[in-house]
Give the backbone structure.
Amino acid sequence: MKVKIISIILFLSFISKAETKEIPYTLDDRDRLLRVEESIQTLNIRFDDLNSKFDSRFDSIQKQIDFSNNLMLTLIAGLLGTVIYMWWDRRAANAPLKDAIEDESKKTKNLIKALKEYSDSHPELKTIFDRAAIL
């Protein structure tokens, strides 16, 4: 037991000497530290320059994309406007034609009705219409 206590005391004394040993800080160490700090500062400057270059490139790319989007929207609006105008124009141009066709259809129906009435009193005409499958 005494041996253990003595060995612990000796061990602690060596540890205390190891902890109190001072490492000298030389001028060379100071110079090295200053050089490392300068290198870090120059790297920071370089990274800042690269960031600004990338930002300017991304800004120019974004402007090109915005221009392309605006151009596409303009083209789509132009095509849509053209299609709507063509639809409206055809509808407006076909309205008189549609009315004329309806008038001619009414006239044709009246003519067929008159011919039917006339063919009732003229059997020869009725025979001709029956052969031609008109009435």
The radius of gyration is 53 Å.
